[in-house]
Request: fold
Amino acid sequence: MLIKLPPRLAACAGLVSRGGVLLDIGTDHALLPCFLAEANRVRLAYACDVAPGPLSAAKADIARFGLSRRVIPLLSDGFKDIPADILPAVTDVVIAGMGGELIAEILSPAPRSEAVNFILQPNSRASHLRRFLHDRGFQVASERAVIDGRFAYTIINAKFSGEPVPRALSDLEAEIGHLDPADPPSREYLLREASRLKAAADGMSRSQKPSPEAEKILNLSNQIAAFADKKS
Reply:
């Protein structure tokens, strides 16, 4: 049985190490770990979710695809309930389909190992996640955007380096991350972010007297749009 993934999960799957051990946090229906196990891209995968309902759906899919020996369901609140003997073998961690703030919260107790490949797909507040990674000693190896239906997502590939942080990210750096405007989906993502911020600034201006905060947001929107139109 050939498992189909939506574009955002297919992009995440493409960043997982071949032959490794995957920890998929917030697995929902376990489609990503099942896809990778069926394709023999991973030796073993753990499908983790905090709620019994989604985990039951994951178990049903694992059984339906005949992958019970390769994909192991785990009830866990992020890393908090992962058995200690499992973590040393994990090579890749995927956290996809959540807000950037929640992903950062989940990552706070994550094992600080330079050998672990983190693949992160925030649905919102990507700038918050980028700041967290920068401040906590994670090195972003790559970032790309993907268009999935009506939505645009960014996917961040990072590893823990433990290197000292020389300075804080600027607002612009936190918004654009490592996206390349020469890549069409990344440019589209950046333009949508610029439009979102402009709408927020316009809304603030309509609801109250002109404020420095609204001007700041509008200026940031213009900077992102200008960056998106750069030719690399």
